[in-house]
Amino acid sequence: MKLTFAIVLAAASLIAGLVLSPATHLRAQWIPGLPSTPPYVTFGMVGVAAGQSVRLNAMLIPTGGPIVGGASCQVTFSFLNDQGATLASATMPVNQNQAVHFDYPPLPTAATGRTEIRGTVQVAFVDMSASPVAVVGSCPVVSTMEIFNPTNGQTEIVLENTHSLPEVLPLVARQ
């Protein structure tokens, strides 16, 4: 009786395993997901003094496979002032295991005081072959912001801690 119960239990477990895990009996390949990276991040406010420059960096983490043909990862860098107005912005493609950067020019040496700014980094996986261009997701990037002396190239501080921003999608105008 105990042996029959054990055999029935083993058979039921095997069948349940095959039903719940079709990849085992279908020999399907498991495709790992991309590392989770927020698609739109900001750094905190920083004070920039005369003669200093600020650089935003983004490195695309290697995903282990080719990027879909006709698609690329696009990074949009923006510098904003303490009132939220955009001071400078640029969008550029980035390849796996490579980095791109965007500099906010140095403040004039004659400037007094400091200027408060922050940087944002927005990433998207874009299909350039679609018409119109289609945004199909996000890319796994590591972002940093650094303040440096452009005269001698010395980095004064590097910020790595970002804060996620919600993406605002425009509403379609109703007629």
**How many strands, which pairing sense, and closed or not: the largest β-sheet?**
7 strands, antiparallel
Q: What is the count of helical runs?
A: 2
Tally of individual domains: 2
Instruction: State the name of the first-level CATH class of the largest domain.
Output: Mainly Beta
Q: How many individual β-strands?
A: 11
Q: Kindly report the average pLDDT value.
A: 77
Task: Based on Cα principal axes, name the global outline.
Answer: elongated
What separation lies between the terminal Cα atoms?
Answer: 75 Å
CATH topology of the largest domain: Immunoglobulin-like
Beta-strand fraction estimate: 35-45%
Order of helices and strands: HHEEEEEEEEEEE
Share in helix? 10-25%
- Rg calc: 25 Å
CATH architecture of the largest domain: Sandwich
SS content category: mainly beta
Uncertain ranges: 22-35
